[in-house]
Amino acid sequence: MKRILIVKVTSMGDVIQAQPIVSDLKRAFPGVEVDWAVDESFAEIARWNPGIDRVLCAPLRRFKKARRWEDFRAIAQSIAELRAKPYDVVVDIHGVYKSAIIAFLSRSRRRLGYRSQDLGERGAAFAYTGRFAPPRDRNAWNGMRETVSTALGYPLDGPADYNLRIPAPARPIVDTGGRPLALLFHAASKDDKKWPTAHWVEIARDLVRRGFYVAVPWGSAAERSEGLAIVSQVEGAELLPQLSVTEIAQTIAASDFVIGVDTGFVHLAHALEKRTVMIFIATSRETFGNNVPFRSVSIGDGNSVPPVAEALAAIDHVHSDARALDGHGESAAAA
Protein backbone atom coordinates (compact mmCIF):
# COMPACT_ATOMS: atom_id res chain seq x y z
CA MET A 1 0.00 0.00 0.00
CA LYS A 2 1.70 3.20 -1.21
CA ARG A 3 -0.99 5.86 -1.47
CA ILE A 4 -4.47 6.21 0.09
CA LEU A 5 -7.11 8.90 -0.33
CA ILE A 6 -9.61 9.56 2.46
CA VAL A 7 -12.76 11.46 1.46
CA LYS A 8 -14.51 13.34 4.27
CA VAL A 9 -15.72 16.64 2.90
CA THR A 10 -17.67 18.27 5.75
CA SER A 11 -18.52 19.33 8.42
CA MET A 12 -16.04 20.77 10.92
CA GLY A 13 -16.72 18.35 13.77
CA ASP A 14 -16.77 15.35 11.44
CA VAL A 15 -13.50 16.29 9.73
CA ILE A 16 -11.83 16.83 13.12
CA GLN A 17 -13.12 13.57 14.56
CA ALA A 18 -11.98 11.64 11.49
CA GLN A 19 -8.34 12.75 11.80
CA PRO A 20 -7.22 9.75 13.94
CA ILE A 21 -7.69 7.60 10.83
CA VAL A 22 -4.52 9.16 9.42
CA SER A 23 -2.40 8.05 12.37
CA ASP A 24 -4.01 4.60 12.19
CA LEU A 25 -3.08 4.27 8.52
CA LYS A 26 0.47 5.46 9.06
CA ARG A 27 0.96 2.82 11.77
CA ALA A 28 -0.69 0.06 9.74
CA PHE A 29 1.15 0.76 6.48
CA PRO A 30 4.63 2.21 7.17
CA GLY A 31 5.67 4.66 4.47
CA VAL A 32 2.16 5.08 3.04
CA GLU A 33 1.10 8.48 1.71
CA VAL A 34 -2.30 9.61 2.96
CA ASP A 35 -4.16 12.35 1.11
CA TRP A 36 -7.43 13.95 2.22
CA ALA A 37 -10.28 15.38 0.13
CA VAL A 38 -12.27 18.09 1.92
CA ASP A 39 -14.38 21.14 1.23
CA GLU A 40 -12.35 24.33 1.06
CA SER A 41 -14.18 25.62 4.16
CA PHE A 42 -12.49 22.98 6.32
CA ALA A 43 -9.17 22.54 4.52
CA GLU A 44 -7.35 24.32 7.37
CA ILE A 45 -8.23 21.45 9.68
CA ALA A 46 -6.65 18.85 7.44
CA ARG A 47 -3.57 21.04 7.01
CA TRP A 48 -3.09 21.10 10.79
CA ASN A 49 -2.39 17.35 10.61
CA PRO A 50 1.26 16.81 9.59
CA GLY A 51 0.45 13.18 8.81
CA ILE A 52 -1.57 14.21 5.74
CA ASP A 53 0.61 14.38 2.65
CA ARG A 54 -1.76 16.30 0.35
CA VAL A 55 -4.93 18.20 1.12
CA LEU A 56 -7.25 18.25 -1.88
CA CYS A 57 -9.94 20.89 -1.57
CA ALA A 58 -12.48 22.78 -3.63
CA PRO A 59 -15.15 25.42 -2.83
CA LEU A 60 -18.03 22.95 -3.13
CA ARG A 61 -20.30 24.63 -0.58
CA ARG A 62 -19.66 28.09 -1.97
CA PHE A 63 -20.26 26.99 -5.57
CA LYS A 64 -23.56 25.38 -4.57
CA LYS A 65 -24.74 28.70 -3.10
CA ALA A 66 -23.34 31.25 -5.57
CA ARG A 67 -22.52 29.36 -8.82
CA ARG A 68 -19.63 31.69 -9.55
CA TRP A 69 -17.28 31.08 -12.47
CA GLU A 70 -14.14 31.40 -10.34
CA ASP A 71 -15.42 28.69 -8.01
CA PHE A 72 -16.19 26.40 -10.95
CA ARG A 73 -12.66 26.98 -12.23
CA ALA A 74 -11.23 26.15 -8.78
CA ILE A 75 -13.22 22.91 -8.76
CA ALA A 76 -11.88 22.01 -12.21
CA GLN A 77 -8.34 22.64 -11.01
CA SER A 78 -8.90 20.47 -7.97
CA ILE A 79 -10.08 17.63 -10.21
CA ALA A 80 -6.84 17.85 -12.18
CA GLU A 81 -4.89 17.73 -8.91
CA LEU A 82 -6.96 14.76 -7.75
CA ARG A 83 -6.10 12.82 -10.90
CA ALA A 84 -2.40 13.74 -10.86
CA LYS A 85 -1.48 10.75 -8.69
CA PRO A 86 -2.89 7.21 -8.68
CA TYR A 87 -4.27 5.76 -5.46
CA ASP A 88 -4.11 2.16 -4.32
CA VAL A 89 -7.45 2.72 -2.62
CA VAL A 90 -9.92 5.54 -2.05
CA VAL A 91 -12.06 5.35 1.11
CA ASP A 92 -15.18 7.51 1.17
CA ILE A 93 -16.34 7.89 4.78
CA HIS A 94 -18.81 10.63 3.89
CA GLY A 95 -21.28 8.80 1.68
CA VAL A 96 -23.10 11.49 -0.33
CA TYR A 97 -23.08 12.46 -4.02
CA LYS A 98 -20.26 15.00 -3.78
CA SER A 99 -17.93 12.65 -1.92
CA ALA A 100 -18.81 9.78 -4.26
CA ILE A 101 -18.01 11.94 -7.30
CA ILE A 102 -14.61 12.73 -5.82
CA ALA A 103 -13.96 9.00 -5.34
CA PHE A 104 -15.16 8.23 -8.88
CA LEU A 105 -12.99 10.92 -10.47
CA SER A 106 -9.84 9.61 -8.83
CA ARG A 107 -7.55 7.25 -10.73
CA SER A 108 -8.12 4.43 -8.30
CA ARG A 109 -9.57 1.09 -9.38
CA ARG A 110 -10.45 0.34 -5.75
CA ARG A 111 -13.03 2.72 -4.32
CA LEU A 112 -14.68 1.82 -1.03
CA GLY A 113 -17.88 3.29 0.38
CA TYR A 114 -20.80 2.53 2.66
CA ARG A 115 -23.55 0.03 1.85
CA SER A 116 -26.64 1.60 0.28
CA GLN A 117 -28.62 1.55 3.55
CA ASP A 118 -25.80 3.39 5.35
CA LEU A 119 -25.27 6.14 2.76
CA GLY A 120 -26.40 9.70 3.35
CA GLU A 121 -27.59 9.70 -0.26
CA ARG A 122 -28.26 6.28 -1.73
CA GLY A 123 -27.39 7.33 -5.27
CA ALA A 124 -23.76 7.72 -4.16
CA ALA A 125 -23.42 3.93 -4.47
CA PHE A 126 -22.55 4.26 -8.19
CA ALA A 127 -18.97 5.27 -7.34
CA TYR A 128 -17.82 2.28 -5.32
CA THR A 129 -16.13 -0.98 -6.26
CA GLY A 130 -16.37 -2.29 -2.68
CA ARG A 131 -18.72 -1.68 0.22
CA PHE A 132 -18.47 -1.58 4.01
CA ALA A 133 -20.80 -1.18 6.97
CA PRO A 134 -20.24 0.96 10.08
CA PRO A 135 -20.29 -0.89 13.41
CA ARG A 136 -23.62 -0.61 15.21
CA ASP A 137 -22.33 -0.61 18.79
CA ARG A 138 -19.97 2.39 18.58
CA ASN A 139 -20.41 6.13 18.55
CA ALA A 140 -19.83 7.92 15.24
CA TRP A 141 -16.19 8.77 15.95
CA ASN A 142 -15.01 5.34 17.04
CA GLY A 143 -17.15 3.92 14.28
CA MET A 144 -15.24 5.78 11.57
CA ARG A 145 -11.92 4.42 12.81
CA GLU A 146 -13.23 0.87 13.03
CA THR A 147 -14.92 1.10 9.64
CA VAL A 148 -11.69 1.99 7.85
CA SER A 149 -9.60 -0.53 9.81
CA THR A 150 -12.04 -3.31 8.94
CA ALA A 151 -12.28 -2.27 5.29
CA LEU A 152 -8.50 -2.25 4.86
CA GLY A 153 -7.77 -5.19 7.14
CA TYR A 154 -5.63 -3.76 9.93
CA PRO A 155 -6.16 -3.83 13.71
CA LEU A 156 -6.69 -0.66 15.68
CA ASP A 157 -3.76 0.08 17.95
CA GLY A 158 -4.32 2.36 20.93
CA PRO A 159 -6.53 5.41 21.55
CA ALA A 160 -7.41 8.01 18.93
CA ASP A 161 -4.40 10.12 17.89
CA TYR A 162 -5.66 13.34 16.30
CA ASN A 163 -2.14 14.68 15.66
CA LEU A 164 -3.30 18.25 15.11
CA ARG A 165 -0.68 21.00 15.23
CA ILE A 166 -2.19 24.48 15.49
CA PRO A 167 0.19 27.21 14.26
CA ALA A 168 1.24 29.56 17.04
CA PRO A 169 -0.09 33.14 16.80
CA ALA A 170 2.32 36.05 16.47
CA ARG A 171 1.03 37.33 19.81
CA PRO A 172 -1.49 36.06 22.39
CA ILE A 173 -5.04 36.60 21.17
CA VAL A 174 -6.53 36.91 24.67
CA ASP A 175 -4.85 38.75 27.56
CA THR A 176 -6.07 36.96 30.68
CA GLY A 177 -3.84 38.80 33.10
CA GLY A 178 -2.32 35.50 34.20
CA ARG A 179 -5.62 33.76 34.90
CA PRO A 180 -6.52 30.42 33.27
CA LEU A 181 -8.69 30.88 30.19
CA ALA A 182 -12.19 29.39 29.88
CA LEU A 183 -14.02 29.59 26.54
CA LEU A 184 -17.81 29.45 26.18
CA PHE A 185 -19.04 28.26 22.78
CA HIS A 186 -22.70 29.22 22.94
CA ALA A 187 -23.32 29.40 19.19
CA ALA A 188 -24.70 26.54 17.11
CA SER A 189 -25.70 25.91 13.51
CA LYS A 190 -29.33 25.39 14.51
CA ASP A 191 -31.44 27.11 17.16
CA ASP A 192 -32.58 23.82 18.68
CA LYS A 193 -28.95 23.05 19.63
CA LYS A 194 -28.59 26.23 21.69
CA TRP A 195 -28.55 26.46 25.49
CA PRO A 196 -30.51 29.29 27.20
CA THR A 197 -28.69 32.56 27.82
CA ALA A 198 -29.59 32.45 31.51
CA HIS A 199 -27.83 29.08 31.81
CA TRP A 200 -24.69 30.48 30.19
CA VAL A 201 -24.71 33.42 32.59
CA GLU A 202 -24.79 31.08 35.59
CA ILE A 203 -21.94 28.99 34.18
CA ALA A 204 -19.85 32.08 33.37
CA ARG A 205 -20.31 33.44 36.89
CA ASP A 206 -19.32 30.08 38.36
CA LEU A 207 -16.16 29.93 36.24
CA VAL A 208 -15.20 33.47 37.25
CA ARG A 209 -15.60 32.43 40.91
CA ARG A 210 -13.27 29.50 40.22
CA GLY A 211 -10.60 31.96 39.06
CA PHE A 212 -11.05 31.67 35.29
CA TYR A 213 -10.89 34.45 32.76
CA VAL A 214 -14.05 33.81 30.73
CA ALA A 215 -14.13 34.63 27.02
CA VAL A 216 -16.95 34.17 24.51
CA PRO A 217 -16.19 33.70 20.78
CA TRP A 218 -18.71 34.36 18.02
CA GLY A 219 -19.00 34.22 14.24
CA SER A 220 -22.11 36.02 12.97
CA ALA A 221 -23.89 39.21 14.00
CA ALA A 222 -26.60 37.16 15.70
CA GLU A 223 -24.00 35.17 17.63
CA ARG A 224 -22.33 38.41 18.69
CA SER A 225 -25.62 39.68 20.10
CA GLU A 226 -26.17 36.42 21.96
CA GLY A 227 -22.63 36.50 23.34
CA LEU A 228 -23.02 40.12 24.41
CA ALA A 229 -26.17 39.15 26.32
CA ILE A 230 -24.04 36.71 28.32
CA VAL A 231 -20.96 38.83 29.09
CA SER A 232 -22.99 41.94 29.90
CA GLN A 233 -24.33 40.09 32.97
CA VAL A 234 -20.99 38.66 34.13
CA GLU A 235 -18.28 40.84 35.59
CA GLY A 236 -14.94 39.51 34.41
CA ALA A 237 -16.21 37.97 31.15
CA GLU A 238 -15.14 39.20 27.71
CA LEU A 239 -16.77 39.06 24.30
CA LEU A 240 -13.93 38.34 21.89
CA PRO A 241 -13.54 40.19 18.60
CA GLN A 242 -14.53 38.32 15.46
CA LEU A 243 -11.81 35.76 14.80
CA SER A 244 -10.89 33.52 11.88
CA VAL A 245 -11.11 29.73 12.16
CA THR A 246 -7.36 29.55 12.74
CA GLU A 247 -7.47 32.31 15.37
CA ILE A 248 -10.25 30.53 17.25
CA ALA A 249 -8.22 27.31 17.07
CA GLN A 250 -5.22 29.19 18.47
CA THR A 251 -7.37 30.55 21.29
CA ILE A 252 -8.57 27.03 22.08
CA ALA A 253 -4.96 25.81 22.08
CA ALA A 254 -4.14 28.50 24.68
CA SER A 255 -7.19 27.75 26.84
CA ASP A 256 -7.49 25.76 30.03
CA PHE A 257 -11.16 24.82 29.79
CA VAL A 258 -13.86 24.77 27.11
CA ILE A 259 -17.62 24.37 27.51
CA GLY A 260 -20.03 24.50 24.61
CA VAL A 261 -22.90 22.98 22.70
CA ASP A 262 -22.48 20.30 20.03
CA THR A 263 -20.35 22.28 17.61
CA GLY A 264 -17.10 21.81 15.71
CA PHE A 265 -14.93 24.01 17.91
CA VAL A 266 -15.79 22.01 21.01
CA HIS A 267 -14.80 18.85 19.14
CA LEU A 268 -11.52 20.61 18.33
CA ALA A 269 -10.98 21.35 22.03
CA HIS A 270 -11.45 17.65 22.76
CA ALA A 271 -9.01 16.73 19.97
CA LEU A 272 -6.43 19.11 21.48
CA GLU A 273 -6.89 17.37 24.85
CA LYS A 274 -8.41 20.37 26.58
CA ARG A 275 -10.70 19.91 29.54
CA THR A 276 -14.06 20.00 27.87
CA VAL A 277 -17.78 19.85 28.65
CA MET A 278 -20.09 19.40 25.65
CA ILE A 279 -23.82 20.06 25.95
CA PHE A 280 -26.27 18.01 23.86
CA ILE A 281 -29.78 19.37 23.45
CA ALA A 282 -31.12 18.18 20.09
CA THR A 283 -28.44 15.70 18.99
CA SER A 284 -27.38 12.36 20.43
CA ARG A 285 -24.72 12.38 23.13
CA GLU A 286 -24.25 8.64 22.70
CA THR A 287 -23.64 9.03 18.97
CA PHE A 288 -21.63 12.24 18.82
CA GLY A 289 -20.32 12.85 22.33
CA ASN A 290 -16.82 12.77 23.78
CA ASN A 291 -15.97 11.12 27.06
CA VAL A 292 -12.53 10.77 28.64
CA PRO A 293 -12.65 10.56 32.45
CA PHE A 294 -11.44 13.71 34.21
CA ARG A 295 -10.95 15.51 30.89
CA SER A 296 -13.86 15.41 28.46
CA VAL A 297 -17.53 14.99 29.40
CA SER A 298 -20.74 15.13 27.36
CA ILE A 299 -24.07 15.88 29.02
CA GLY A 300 -27.73 15.91 27.95
CA ASP A 301 -30.15 13.34 26.56
CA GLY A 302 -30.55 14.94 23.13
CA ASN A 303 -34.25 15.59 23.71
CA SER A 304 -34.34 18.29 26.37
CA VAL A 305 -32.37 21.19 27.82
CA PRO A 306 -29.83 19.99 30.41
CA PRO A 307 -30.08 21.93 33.69
CA VAL A 308 -27.26 24.12 34.97
CA ALA A 309 -26.67 21.68 37.84
CA GLU A 310 -25.73 18.93 35.38
CA ALA A 311 -23.20 21.20 33.70
CA LEU A 312 -21.72 22.27 37.05
CA ALA A 313 -21.30 18.61 38.05
CA ALA A 314 -19.50 17.97 34.75
CA ILE A 315 -17.21 20.94 35.36
CA ASP A 316 -16.42 19.58 38.81
CA HIS A 317 -15.57 16.22 37.24
CA VAL A 318 -13.13 17.51 34.63
CA HIS A 319 -11.46 19.69 37.24
CA SER A 320 -11.06 16.85 39.70
CA ASP A 321 -7.67 16.46 41.32
CA ALA A 322 -7.34 13.04 39.70
CA ARG A 323 -4.68 13.07 37.01
CA ALA A 324 -4.52 9.45 35.88
CA LEU A 325 -6.88 6.66 35.06
CA ASP A 326 -5.90 3.61 37.07
CA GLY A 327 -5.28 0.58 34.93
CA HIS A 328 -5.72 2.36 31.60
CA GLY A 329 -2.43 4.17 31.20
CA GLU A 330 -4.15 7.33 29.99
CA SER A 331 -3.68 10.60 31.79
CA ALA A 332 -5.88 13.64 31.83
CA ALA A 333 -4.55 16.65 29.97
CA ALA A 334 -2.99 19.22 32.24
CA ALA A 335 -4.64 22.59 32.29
UniProtKB/TrEMBL annotation:
The protein, known as: Lipopolysaccharide heptosyltransferase 1
Family annotation (InterPro entries): Glyco_trans_9, LipoPS_heptosylTferase-I, LPS_LOS_Heptosyltrfase
KW Glycosyltransferase (keyword) present: yes
Gene: waaC
Class of enzymatic activity (EC top level): transferase
Compartments it resides in: Cell inner membrane
SUPFAM superfamilies tied to this protein: UDP-Glycosyltransferase/glycogen phosphorylase
Domain of life: Bacteria
Catalytic activity: an alpha-Kdo-(2->4)-alpha-Kdo-(2->6)-lipid A + ADP-L-glycero-beta-D-manno-heptose = an L-alpha-D-Hep-(1->5)-[alpha-Kdo-(2->4)]-alpha-Kdo-(2->6)-lipid A + ADP + H(+)
Main localization (coarse): membrane
Native organism: Paraburkholderia bengalensis
NCBIfam families membership: heptsyl_trn_I
Pathway: Bacterial outer membrane biogenesis; LPS core biosynthesis
EC nos: 2.4.99.23
Alphabetized CDD domains for the sequence: GT9_LPS_heptosyltransferase
